[in-house]
Write a structure and sequence with these properties.
mainly alpha, about 0% strand
């Protein structure tokens, strides 16, 4: 009989990090089980035992990506003004999309671009994940309206959607080879739509 609680014999966190990169490079549909297990350095039996099936592994990978690679998005929400929130998010996003040590673009955008045998579940899952981020930003912008940091009548949901459209558009261009400076140029223009306080303008 197998001994319960026996160590897996591999670093599950490191294997998951490598799965993140494989999904990031190939997308959910494009990443075969063979590519995933080779990237993770484990066999299929170990993968199923530790992470479940491919779809469950992808959900875990996206959560890992959100925790580590998207930490800047949570940090941006703590900035003192709406302008600084948006600027911090879009600047850090442009940098993250073009890191030399990571695939270009964004896992949450590229992961579900191709619909396959999953009947659209992955695309919907990723859309819901992005929407959660948009809603968190909208709540922060709504607070800015209440505090008088954004003009009365500002629609925080529409403004948050605008910011996410810029972010996701930059992700598509980064994956196609756009340089970091080009993405920041887009951010420069996008920021003109965000009202600034006197404190912002003084910086």
């Amino acid at each position: 009989m197998a001994v319960r609680g026996r160590p897996r014999g591999f670093d599950a966190d490191a294997a998951l990090d490598r799965a993140v990169e494989a999904f990031w490079r190939h997308g959910y549909e494009g990443a075969s089980l063979t590519e995933l297990t080779e990237a993770m350095g484990i066999n299929r039996t170990s993968m199923y035992a530790a992470f479940g099936n491919k779809e469950e592994l992808f959900h875990r990978a996206v959560a890992r990506y959100a925790e580590a690679d998207m930490a800047y998005a949570r940090e941006a929400l703590a900035e003192p003004t709406a302008y600084k929130v948006v600027e911090s998010f879009l600047r850090a996003n442009a940098d993250a999309l073009t890191r030399a040590d990571r695939p270009a673009g964004c896992l949450s955008v590229q992961g579900g671009l191709a619909e396959g045998s999953d009947s659209g579940r992955i695309a919907r899952f990723l859309a819901d994940s992005r929407l959660a981020g948009e809603r968190a930003l909208a709540r922060r912008l709504a607070r800015a309206v209440e505090e008088g940091d954004l003009p009365a009548g500002t629609d925080p949901h529409a403004l948050a959607r605008y910011v996410m459209v810029v972010s996701e558009g930059n992700a598509v261009h980064a994956a196609a080879g756009a340089a970091r400076a080009a993405l920041h140029g887009t951010v420069d223009i996008a920021l003109q739509a965000i009202p600034r306080t006197h404190a912002d303008a003084a910086v």
